[in-house]
Amino acid sequence: MVSKLLVLSALCSLAVSKPHTRSLAVHEAVATTPRGYVRTAPAASDSTIKLRIALAPKDIDGLITTLYDVSDPKSNLYGAHLSKEEAEAFVSPTSETVEKVNEWLKENGVTATPLTDAGDWLSVQIPVSKANEMLNADFSVFTHPTTNKQVVRTLTYSIPDTLKGHIDVIHPTVSFPNPKGRHPVVHSVSTNNDTRRAADATCSSSGITPACVQSLYGVPATIAKNSKSQLAVSGFIEQFAQQKDLTTFLQKFRTDLPSTTAFTLQTLDGGQNPQGNNEAGVEANLDIQYTVGIASGIPTTFISVGENFQDGDLDGFLDIINFLLNESSPPQVLTTSYGDDETDVSRALTNTLCNAYAQLGARGVSILFASGDGGVGGGQSGESCTTFIPTFPNNCPLYVTNVGATQLSGTSSETSAGFSSGGFSNFFGIPAYQASAVQSFLTTLGSTDSGKFNRSGRAIPDVAAIGTNLEIVVNGRTELVDGTSCSSPIFAGIVALLNDELLAAGKSPLGFLNPFLYANPGAFNDITTGSNPGCNTNGFPAVKGWDPVTGLGTPNFAGLRKAAGLS
C-alpha cells in the first residue's frame, strides 16, 4: 500500500524544469525489422505516443519461490495461496525505484499514470519528439506491405544508467505486432446439418460431444454444488459468445443440464458481447459451450477484452491478467484459446507478462492455454520456417499450463492430432518440475532435427485433450471444429470440477497446476502415436511418457481425483 501511494502521489506530477543531461545505455534493441515490416517514414515529431513503463518488482525471486511452495504437493505450504495484498507486496516497486523514476520523469516534464494497484506499471502520453529525446530512440512508421498494417516503433531505445535495475521494459518500442493479429486457435471449421446425433456417449470420429468427452476421461455428469469453484474464459478480437447458442447446445448435447444455464459477462478495454443475429464467434462459442458443457454447474464467466489495449504490444494478454489481479477473489481457472509466436515479443516484455502470471498463480489460479495449431511451426498452420517456432504467451516457464490436442483412433482410443503445437522455448530454460520428463524424451529422440530447436528450453505442451471434430452450435446451426482451442476448455472444465470437490472438502483449489501434474504422470492416458509436422519436417513424435505433442497425455479423472487427495 505504501508503494502504491508513493506512485500515486509522486509520479502523477508535472515538472517544468529543464531536463538534466543523463548518461544513457541501450536497454533493448533488435538487429532487423521483424515479420516483413519496412520503415517508411519518421514518425511525426508532434504526434502523441502512449508508452507503458514496467517498474522492477521489489522481490520477484521471492514471489517465484512462494509460487513453487504453494504449488508443489511435496511442500509444507502446498495450497497456502496468497491474498491480493500479499502478492502485491512482492511486485510493488521499492521506494528507491519510485523516487528514481519519478526524478527522471520530472526532469522531462512528464506525467505518469499508474495502471495497477501494485504500482508496477505506469503509462505516459508524450510527443514522439520527447520520446526520441528521453530514450535516444528513432520512432518511425513501419509498414507491412502485404496487409498495409502500419505501426510506430523503434529498433532501439535507451534509459539512463541510473535507472538500470529500476525499469524492466518500456513499450511499445522494439516489439512488432503480428500483422495478421492475434489468432483464435481454431484449426478448421466445417458446416454440419441439424440432424446430427444428440448426446451420445459412443465416441465417433464424425462428431465429438460432451458425453463422448465424459466417456473418454471418466468425467462425472453430476452437477456441481459448490459455487465457490469458478471458471473464466478469455475472449479477444471481437469474438462474441451467444447465450441462445449455448441454450441450443445444452438442449442438444447436455439434456441433463438446465437449458437456462447462463454465463456471466465481464468486459475490459472496451470489450462487449452483442447478442444479435450472426454476431456469434466460433471461438467464443466453442470455449463457452465446452466449459459449461464439461464443468457441470460450475459458474462460468466470459471475459471480453476489447481493442482499447492498455498493454501495448501485448494486445490485451497482460490487461486481462491485471484485471483479474485487481479482483479480491478471481476465478480459480482461466482458459485462453488465443496466441501467437514467441518471435513476436521481446524477451523483456515476455518476462513482464510471465511475472503477472506468476502473481496470479500464487493466488491460486490455474491458467491454461491452447498450445497452438501449427505443429512445430508455431501457433498457426502453414507458417514458413526452417527452425521450429515456439508459441506465445504459453511459453512462460513456470506459470501456465499448455494443452495440446488428440484425435480419435477407433471409437475410444486416442492418437495425437497432427496440428498440435509443441516444442521448446528460446527464451526460458527447462523448469525443475518437468526436467526429468523432458530429458527422457530427448534421450529417446536422439539427434533427430538437431539444431532446429533449443534442447534446453521450457517444453510444451504439458497435457492434452481431444481436439478434433467437436460439435458446437453457431447461429443456431451445428458445426464441427478442430484445434487445441477445443482441448484447453475441456481440460479447464475438468480442473474446475476437481476444484469444486476440493473446496467442498474445505481444501484449497489446485492453483498453478504444473508441479502437481508432473508429479502424477499416472493420472494421464499416455498418447504414444502420431506427430506434429511443420517446417518441412515430421515434427516431434508422440512417445511413451511426456512428449512435445501431447505432453503427459490426456486426463484420467479418477486418477486426478486420487492424486488430489479426493479418494
TrEMBL record:
Keywords for this protein: Hydrolase, Protease
The protein, known as: Family S53 protease
Organism: Irpex rosettiformis
